Request: fold
Amino acid sequence: MNETKGKPRILLLEDDFALAEVMRELFAEMGAVTEAVPSISGAVKALRSFSPDVIVIDLRLADGNGIDFVEYVRQREEGRAIPIIAVSAVADKSVISSARRKGVDEYLVKPFHPAELLAIIRNHLQRQKAIAKLASREAHIQTVKMLTNVMEARSKYRRGHSERVRRYAKILGEALGWSEEDMVFLEFGALLHDIGKIQIPIEILEKPGPLTPEERALIETHPQAGAEMLREVDHLKPVIPYVLYHHERCNGSGYPFHLPCKEIPPEGRLIAIVDSYDAMVSNRPYRAAKLKEVALAELMRDAGVLYDEGMVRVFVEVMQGDVLNSHDKTDNDSR
Ligand SMILES: [Fe+2]
Reply:
């Protein structure tokens, strides 16, 4: 049983045994496991017991029309998203469009080239994988968002900050050409960068006047406190650099380690820019929000001193672009 684990599963409904055997071998070459059934009743059983990733179906069968099975699959919860590829000797256009209407995704007219069928199956499997990955990432993001919302609910000044930082971070990461994998962690890192602040009393976070040295020291524990929290969660460990280094500054004036630019991981350098930007354009207990242009000019002024010079340049460029103006609009509207 274990030999088939992780392999794509193809349910083949074909009543020509010789052809079914040829197709089974063909699918085996691409690493798939095939359950071949000659009848609709067999296919109905296999849909449940085999849970296929893809269904390949001959429409003209000894015990009926394959389309009946397609309709059956589409009515089932578990069958709604399974790609169905029909093979048939019938090339009639109205038959093809009716099959599509009833739920067939692809229609191949016999005789077809095996490579064509394999390419179609591969394509569907890849898309399914990508969708599954996205769906689980989105589910995790939702959970993490809830966590940051709970934290930010304590303070009207913080509300929405993590979500905006996530948006700016995504824009900058994409503009920098970061890989898809990096972008996954970046989103979590941006959302969670201030999670350690949960340990700081709200009176200190929202103090309108200047902080005492003790209060400042307490606030400066939040990157390490947040990193500690994430160390307990296996799949979030790659996110730690975003949390731990987002207050480091290029000239060594940051915290907690006072690192110089070249020793600050890129994750920390990136969040430093977008976090500071959002802080500048938001109201704070001790000052009003700055205009976007003023904030960008300030980032430029501090490029190479506080922030990574190259990253600031890319950020300012992209923020001044048209696409970004519409993002900002959404932000302001939601505030
Ligand atoms: Fe922070």
Observations:
- The chain has a mean pLDDT of 89.
- The chain is about 55% helix and 10% strand.
- The longest helix spans residues 114-152.
